[in-house]
């Protein structure tokens, strides 16, 4: 199975899925940024930390019990990093960037970082090229990280686009896996800022038409469980609801899993169960439910 992932909802699921199945993960890299000389891949880091069982489960980013001494010291010295970077987390960014500086690709760097953390599953970036999520707001254009971290998601959103996506290529290692795997799961991630970039790399959307595809809705009722998915979906002209999520994926989706509180929506293509993952046990149960669906399609 291939799982498409962003950096919060799907990593929660991966922690459960890894207890019952082997899989490959293709991760969004359109939120990546260079800070203080190092490349930060927020979604790849969260996937690796979740699989290595070291993720900070309060925030769902960074490493648990991390300290921020370097970040705070830099601030005292007069340099304010736009993102709060933990000391342990920074070690990951340094390792990745040193591998890249030696001329290796992001695919190779990601593989080495994942192995270094003892992760057994194969984790891939959606591409090796740099892609940036740009949010067009009432205050002008800004990078996703500026919108979400610095401006706390406050500005009105008019559009979202992915700079550099036309030059991005599906890495050969990812193509090989896509050829072999028939089942694709889209975790409960932001359909616009986390999953659309992955679908936008070359002919990924077309490829999915020939696969069995199941997605889990990150929208429950009329709201996302967390994050800016609502604002982004509205800006792209989609209703903020599980049906709106279905619409984003409708050209290739076989089944959408919605939360049990949305069970009125169930049909031959929409199944309901508890999708809120407050614990690893919740994630295991949701993973088992998804596997049963794949058996039926
Ligand atoms: P990002 O890269 O940090 O934006 O993370 P993702 O795109 O992977 O995840 C964000 C999405 O996950 C949001 O739209 C949330 O609504 C959704 N999400 C987070 N936790 C849960 C959960 O426990 N259940 C469900 N169904 N969705 C969740």
Tell me the CATH topology of one domain.
Helicase, Ruva Protein, domain 3
Tally of DSSP β-strands: 14
Strand content: 15-25%
Question: Rg to the nearest angstrom?
Answer: 18 Å
Cα distance spanning the termini = 14 Å
Are any ligands bound, and if so which?
guanosine-5'-diphosphate
CATH architecture of one domain: Orthogonal Bundle
Largest sheet: 7 strands, parallel
What layout of secondary structure does this protein have?
Layout: E1 2-5, H1 9-17, E2 24-27, E3 33-35, E4 38-40, H2 42-51, H3 69-76, H4 87-101, H5 106-116, E5 122-125, E6 132-137, E7 140-143, H6 144-150, E8 157-163, H7 172-180, E9 183-186, H8 191-199, H9 204-208, E10 212-216, E11 219-220, E12 223-224, H10 229-235, H11 242-249, E13 255-259, E14 270-273, H12 280-296
Parallel strand pairs: 1-2, 1-9, 2-5, 9-10, 10-13, 13-14
Antiparallel strand pairs: 3-4, 6-7, 6-8, 11-12
Bound molecules: guanosine-5'-diphosphate.
Residues 6-10, 12, 43, 188-190, 193-194, 216, 218, 220, 224-227, 229, 275-277 line the site of guanosine-5'-diphosphate.
Describe the 3D structure.
This protein is of the alpha/beta class. It is built from 12 helices and 14 strands. A 7-stranded parallel β-sheet has the order 5-2-1-9-10-13-14, with helices on both faces. A 3-stranded antiparallel β-sheet has the order 7-6-8. The structure holds guanosine-5'-diphosphate (GDP). The site of guanosine-5'-diphosphate (GDP) has 23 residues, from helix 1 and helix 8. Guanosine-5'-diphosphate binds next to helix 1 and helix 8.
